[in-house]
Design a protein that fits this description.
Number of helices: 17
Shape: elongated
Largest sheet: 4 strands, mixed
Order of helices and strands: HHEHEHEHEHHHHHHHHHHHH
Number of domains: 2
Radius of gyration: 30 Å
Number of strands: 4
């Protein structure tokens, strides 16, 4: 308790570190997330609602189609070289109507219309989908009219009606961007939330040459490590709590985000419980690593690499999504990612998954605590150079 009070007192006295840890960090993640989400929603809404202007090559071959597209909000514009405009990212796409369109149309053959676009540009996805849907709708309407003109019920051409029943939760259907970004941000801030205090309480104390007098006291090394560890965990939990509260408050002012994730108090409590093992894991791992550093600069160089660890499961799941299996809830970072996704999507978490997750998370933190105590028992730890 004495070491715990000492570390917290020194942490509060350092106003700059205190502000960066408990104000800048907890505010940065929500602002970054909500800003990017709002920007993406605004751009997508603008592309969906505003009239779409595209170049149409061979418009004279299908004047009725061009007129119908204009009624759907897809207007024709004149471009000297449409393909060059698409390559130069001046236009998202253009339509190319085949020269035999009118002849094939009159003959009852499929008339060719080509959408030319650059598939590597993500910002062209919505305009291209709008063009595809409009052309498909036009083709369906014209096909139905052809059948009616021949005295045939259009439903004859559709011998089977396929319907869908989506059993996902509303939060899961809207959690596109949230599912990609939010788990990584929350895991990173829970994992590294106590980093400034950990570095100062280990490498910083060693650099200031105040660690040797502390180790010379009758206090057990395990008690010293536990005091530092408890102070770091407390700071990490407070930083995480402030981050979650910032998300909760920010979602009230951004209805789009509130519809993409569960932000009620039950969800916030579950998020806190899910991230609690990560706070303990980050504090013990950082303590074990930073205690071997002889200076703050060396410790920061080690811990900067740890920022990459929360990215690994996020990137793997984006490249190759996998179905939940019980062993995943015992793997650090991957387990947190899967649990956070379940909470965000308002999906049920079984008691078995909770058990494996909590035992694995706190068990690994306990092993790292033992490793940190073992390192503090080494006499060379008191040597600063």
């Amino acid at each position: 308790m004495i070491v715990w009070k000492k570390e917290l007192t020194e942490f509060v006295r350092d106003r700059r570190t205190f502000a960066l840890t408990l104000l800048f960090g907890p505010l940065l993640a929500p602002l970054l997330f909500m800003g990017l989400t709002s920007l993406g929603e605004s751009k997508a809404r603008e592309q969906m609602e505003k009239p779409l202007q595209v170049a149409i090559v061979g418009a004279e071959h299908a004047p009725n189609l061009v007129t119908w597209l204009a009624g759907q909000g897809i207007e024709r514009k004149e471009v000297a070289d449409p393909e060059a405009a698409v390559r130069a990212q001046e236009d998202d796409a253009y339509l190319s109507i085949d020269g035999d369109f009118a002849e094939d149309w009159r003959a009852g053959k499929p008339a060719v219309v080509e959408i030319v676009h650059d598939s590597t540009r993500r910002d062209s996805g919505i305009p291209v989908r709008r063009l595809e849907r409009a052309l498909e709708l036009y083709g369906q309407q014209m096909g139905a009219l052809r059948l009616l003109a021949r005295g045939i019920n259009p439903s004859v051409a559709s011998p089977m009606a396929v319907s869908r029943k989506d059993i996902s939760t509303p939060e899961a259907r809207g959690a596109g961007l949230a599912a990609m970004m939010l788990p990584y941000l929350l895991i990173m801030f829970a994992f590294l939330g106590s980093m400034p205090l950990v570095v100062d309480a280990t490498a910083g104390e060693r650099e200031r040459q105040s660690l040797e007098p502390l180790l010379a006291t009758p206090a057990r090394r395990g008690a010293i490590v536990s005091g530092k560890f408890a102070a770091c965990c407390l700071v990490g939990m407070v930083a995480l709590l402030l981050t979650l509260l910032a998300f909760k408050v920010g979602a009230r002012f951004s209805p789009g985000i509130g519809g993409q994730m569960a932000v009620d108090w039950n969800a916030m409590a579950l998020l806190m419980l899910v991230l609690l093992p990560m706070v303990f894991l980050g504090a013990t791992l950082l303590t074990w690593i930073a205690s071997a550093a002889k200076s703050v600069k060396e410790a920061q160089s080690y811990t900067s690499v740890l920022v990459l660890l929360p990215m690994i499961p996020t990137m793997l799941l984006m490249i190759s999504p996998v179905k939940n299996q019980l062993w995943m809830f015992a793997v650090p970072f991957l387990a947190q990612n899967q649990m956070l996704l379940k909470v965000i999507r308002s999906e049920a978490i079984s008691a078995e998954q909770w058990t494996v997750y909590l035992l694995a998370g706190f068990g690994l933190a306990a092993l790292l605590w033992v490793a940190a105590v073992g390192r503090y028992r080494q006499e060379r730890l008191a040597v600063s150079s």
